[in-house]
Every structure is written in structure tokens, then in C-alpha cells.
Amino acid sequence: MTAQTKHQTFELPGGERSRMIFQYKDDVQGYGYTLQNETGGQWEAMSAQFQPLIRGSRFDLYPDEIRQISALELAVSGTKRDQDTLLYTWSGTITADRESGWLQVDLALMGEGTMLINSNVAEPEITVGLGDLPPYERGDHVWYKTNIDNPTKWNDEAGGNDFPACYYYDSYKKFGVMLFFNMTKMGWMAEAGIPRFLHYRCGMRRNYSHEKGNLVVGLIGDAPLAVEFPLQHSRFSYALRCLAMDEPPTERSAVVDLVEACLHFVPREASLPPGATSWRDFGIRCAEDLLDEDACWNGNGSYNMLIPYVNGVSPAWEESFQAKGLTVDFRNQPGMDAALMMIHPLTEISRSAPSPVYEELRRKVWEFIRHAGDEFLENRPRVWGTWQYIFLLEEWWRAAWFEEDGETSARIEAAVEAVVIPLAQRSAYLFPLSFRAPELKKHGNGDNLPVAGAYSYFMLLLYRAKGEKRYLEEAERSLRVLLHLPVNDLHQESFLLSMAIQAADGLFKETGDIAYEEAYRYLLAQNLRMMYWFNDPGFTDYKLWGMFQACTPMLYPAFFENLECAARIASTLKDRSPSDGLIRALNQARMNNFYCFPKCLPEKFRLSELDYIPLENLGTLEDDKTGYAGQEIYGAGQTFRAALLWDQWASCSDERLYMMNLDGYALNRRSAAPAVRTIMIAHLEDAVGEYAIELHEDYREAVVIRGGETVVMKPAKQEAGNAVVQLKMKQRESLLLQLVL
């Protein structure tokens, strides 16, 4: 440890050819930092000089004291006064990670009670000042900068509450910076009643003045606040990463670089919530709940119909309709959306993991669909939500194709030819939010541009099933349009991007065109921008990490979208080597999605007697209304998808091992069951370990593929009729387990 000498300079490496230095500034009686870049053997300031770690009239945290703990860590501390009155003391660390290039800043305040914030500026803010605005800033400079703001937006207006990070590159200085904000640790927003991303955003701001203006990038407030700020143990936690590049990044490459770099922050630790067992168990129990005639079904005099929400209750939609002078009666409304959203995973699990419960539910849902499905297949006058129409047809077609129901498949394909393909072509693959049938024209306001990804995937499936090249051509045209849209125009319903990922993956395999492999990385990054990268510190009853914002800008995660995103992403990993961070994110999803179920939540969130049908929404700091949208029958089928993805075929009771099925979206047929199941096993620990893997179906042999080595495994013992094999895992190792059926 190096002792401090006044006016001493302290430094930390900040990435390739970059560093953070602290120098003493007399007028603030503390140390301010500067970001520097090495050019031609000389260090030059790339940021404003002598900056505080936190900004604001009652913040402006300049360390009074710095201690060099090591070449990669500084301990910082200071005091904050209002004239002669001590407001609080503070301390923390700044740590450099050579491998990732991130500089991690963690600070904690130490004071009593609260402090009134009521100034004419937004505070506190966490920003990096990048210096004066250049000449002709609104001309040449603005055209050639690269900037990625977050959270995501829809329609260039309404922001969400997902990805807490930003990226800025200045083509004049050939220098940029990434920032990531650890919202899990910054509980002061909840304690002070600040609705986080309804007040803050991550990005850049130009500050104008009569003289030279300046540019800042970071966690920026939109307006001044008047709040009581909690002083005791309030924390600020963020990371920054310097970028020194001679060639400017495109916005697409910047999105990829930012998201991939931020995967470094996905926690390794995850655990099952109280009440959780396995997805295999929850699947059966969910099917039992869905068979509840009183809560989930109703008769209309002609047939028995599934309804959209348990007991027909959804306060969110009821209030929304009332505001428009309309009424909605979910108890007496046929839930075709609910039936079609669950039919593919339900059909697959009922055939591959037979049980009387699954079989009965499958029979009832198919019977309902056959009675009520004509609405989708006859081009009658009405208004359709675009993503709903295309997605539901795709899911229905997949299930009919699996069942080898040629008549139903043909009727759906006829609707595709009459409605879906003409709509895509007439809109030039720039899909509207809603459209009118039979005219196939945009209805009302708004676009839903990521539908191009779902459409592309549907066309790819039809090509694989029928072999007609025109479907492949449609898939390519649609995806190319999506790839040329501005980077902030791709976010609406989150799983539409997951389907685009599947389309890019499939098109690369079909064509060998490397452009689709690049598209895959880009679309995966875009989808992960909609993931929740934090646990909400104001809500201790559940965790959000690894869930997805249902739809920008809905401000909450929903179980249906969570599982659609996780399972579709997982389906593309069979021939890939996913990053450690992506595996950790999927593991967070595996654990935390149990919190969507009443079984794993406190009694205060209960909406019915059914424990195994998920709530549509979990409350967030921006939208504190857990269960406000109701218990989603339409999304309950994703419980079967979760079982098929995570533990239906094989499992391990040790939470340090992550397992997932990579065959979940294979285009199978009932009479041609797959001969092999491929399961990825990832060891999340930094040490070696030995684990018992329990196999839940009959198999001829189990094959472990580790790098280029293939080993046939023998069962070590039998437990409750299931085979068990022992696996030794290296630290952070991933391998494939193939079950030969």
C-alpha cells in the first residue's frame, strides 16, 4: 500500500492505451480524475480534467484522500460539507480489471437521516465530462460521432427500464467511453422515491452556455428533483471503460461491443426462490391448474373455451378499456391467443413426456382451437395486431406440422399466402403496429419493425418444411430490411428479436453467407438490451436479473416474454461457444423466472387459488403494480417451454451447474422423433468439481463431448428409476451431453 502525499498523482489502467489519473485540485480541496490516451508515446487528456466521481451541488465527490492499494486498486474517501456543516463522509474503491478493461467504482455514503435535494440542477448524476463542444458541433461533428443511449425506446419517444449502460465515441479525438451502472446496488433511488428510468437515462447530453458548451455522457437526470436523499449507506456503483480506436465504430458494431462487454457484470451467483422445485415439476402442476374449469375455462353454448386470464381478471386491461369508453369481459371472451401461444410447447411436451395431465390438456386445447380458429384463417373484416397475427399463425403451424395434421397445416399456409406474405411485401417489410383485413393496410398509429424478424423466421421454417426457394428469399429480404434500420428502432415486443436471432442463425446455416453470422451477433446484442441487468433494490420479494422487459416501454418483465427470449436464444447455441456471461444470464433466467409464480411469492401477491399459473407482471421501481395485469393463462404454456429447456430430460441438484436443452425449436414431426437430445452443461465455478447428473428418460447411451473428445458414459447408479452419471468438471467449463434415445 502506498501512502498519500499531497499533490501526488495516482493512476489506474483504463483499457488499451488508456488510463485514469487523479491529481489534486486546490479550489475543490480534493482529487479530480482525467481520462488519458497514449498517442505516439505521449499521454493526452481525452476527457475534461479534474472531474468528480459523482456530480451535483450536494455531491461533487472529489476524494480528500487516496491510497494506492495495488497497481489495480485505489481506496478513496472524502467529506461533503454545506459551508461549515458536515453533510456526510464517504469512502470506496476504484478497481481496474486488466482482462476486461473495466474500471469499477464503488462508493458508500456515511451519514445520518436524509438530506434535502432541491436545487436547479438534476442531481446526483454519474457522468464523464468529455470537454468542450467542438466547432461546428451540430454539423460535421454530430454526423460522425457514435452514440448508444439506453434504456431502449419505442417509436423514438417512450423509454423502457432495461439496459443501464451507454457508449460514446468521438471521431475527432478517436476516443470513446462505455459506462455500466449497477442498479442492484443503488438503492437510494427507491428510498428517495425516485422512479429511476422515468427520471434518469443513460447517454449523452450537450450543455450549452454563452461561451463554449460541453459534452457529458453517463447517468443523466432529465430534470431537477425535490427529494429527501438517504445518507446512511447509500451507494454509487458504476464502471467505465475507455476506447482508443483509429477507425470509428458503426452504431451496429457499437451495440455489439457494448453489450458483449457488459456481460462481464452478469452475476455468477443465482439460487432457487422459496417454493421452487424444478421446471419439470412446475410444468405438470401448471397443466393441472390449467385444467381448472372454473378459473381457466368457460362455455359459450357451442364449445368449451380457454379464457385469457385466470377468472377473467386483468385490472390493467379493464382500466385501459374503460379509459377509452369501452368494456372488456375476459370471462366470456374466447382466449384463442392463449390457446395458440401454448399449443406448440404443450403438444411437444405431451408427446415426448407423456402423462395423463398433459394429454388431457392437449386434447382440450386442440378441441377449442378447432372450434374457434376460423377467425384467424378466414380473411374477414377486422383489425389485427401485426405481431400477434403472424406469431400465432407460426406457433399454430408448428404444432400442426409436428402433429402431421396436413389439413390444418394447409389452411394456415393458405392464410400465409393470402394475408401474411402480401402484408409483408406491401409494407416493404416495415411492419405496422396494427393492420386492417382484408385491405391489408396499416391501421392507426405506430410501427412494429421487429416483426420483420418473426416473419423471416416463419418463412425460414416454411422453406425447411416445403423446400420452396421463394420462402427462403422472403426470409432473406425481411431480415435485411431489419438489419438496415436505425439501431434504436428495433425494440417493441422483446421476443420478436429472439425470432430474428433464430432467423439469422438459420440463414447462415442455409446460405453460408458470413453477413448472417454478423447479423446474429448484432441481433443477439439488441435482444439483450431488453434484458433486466439488475435486481430491483426496492423489491426484495423477487429478483429480476435475466428476465426481459416484456415490451418497450411497458416497464415490467412478463413470464411469457422471458421464456420466449431465453428458449429461442438457447436454440441457436448448439453449434456455438456462448460466452461465460451469456451462460450466466441464462442461468439467472432459469432461477429467477420461478418468482413469476404465486407459489414462490408472498401471500400479498396472490390473485387466486392457482399457484402454478404465472403473474403477467412483476412490479418495478418505475411501475410498482405486481399482478396488475392478472395471471396470464396465455403465458402459462411457457412453463412447458421452461421444462423442455432446462430440466425435463436431465438435471442436477447442485446450483453450480447450469444445464439446457439445445433442441427445443427443432422442426420435428411426431412420427420421426429425434434420435438424440443435446444438452449443454456449464460449470459456473472457478474450481473443479464432480457432479451427479440425473437423466429423466430412457436412453441407449449417454455421450459426453468435451472439445474434440467423445466419451460414452455409463450410469453410476439408479435413483427412483432414473439413471445417474457422474461428471467431473473443470473450472468454468462447458461441454455437451448427448442422450441417444
Keywords, separated by commas or semicolons:
globular; alpha+beta; 8-stranded antiparallel sheet; 19 helices; 741 residues; 5-stranded antiparallel sheet
Strand and helix map with partners:
Blueprint: E1 10-13, E2 18-25, E3 30-39, E4 42-45, E5 65-70, E6 73-82, E7 85-96, E8 103-110, E9 114-118, E10 126-132, H1 137-144, E11 146-148, E12 153-154, E13 158-159, E14 165-170, E15 175-181, H2 188-191, E16 200-207, E17 214-221, E18 226-230, E19 235-244, H3 251-262, H4 279-290, H5 293-296, E20 297-299, E21 304-306, H6 315-323, H7 336-352, H8 356-372, H9 374-377, E22 382-385, H10 386-403, H11 406-426, E23 434-437, E24 441-442, H12 451-466, H13 469-483, H14 494-511, H15 514-528, H16 559-570, H17 580-592, H18 633-636, H19 638-646, E25 650-651, E26 657-661, E27 676-683, E28 689-695, E29 701-706, E30 709-713, E31 717-719, E32 722-729, E33 734-740
Antiparallel strand pairs: 1-2, 2-3, 3-4, 5-6, 6-7, 7-8, 8-19, 9-18, 10-17, 11-14, 12-13, 14-15, 15-19, 16-17, 20-21, 22-23, 23-24, 25-28, 26-27, 27-33, 28-32, 29-30, 29-33, 31-32
Descriptive notes:
With 741 residues, the chain is of the alpha+beta class. Helices cover 31% and strands 26% of the residues. It contains 19 helices and 33 strands. The longest helix is centred in the middle third of the chain and has 21 residues, at 406-426. The chain is globular and about 80 Å long. The N and C termini lie far apart (60 Å). The model has no long low-confidence stretch (mean pLDDT 93).
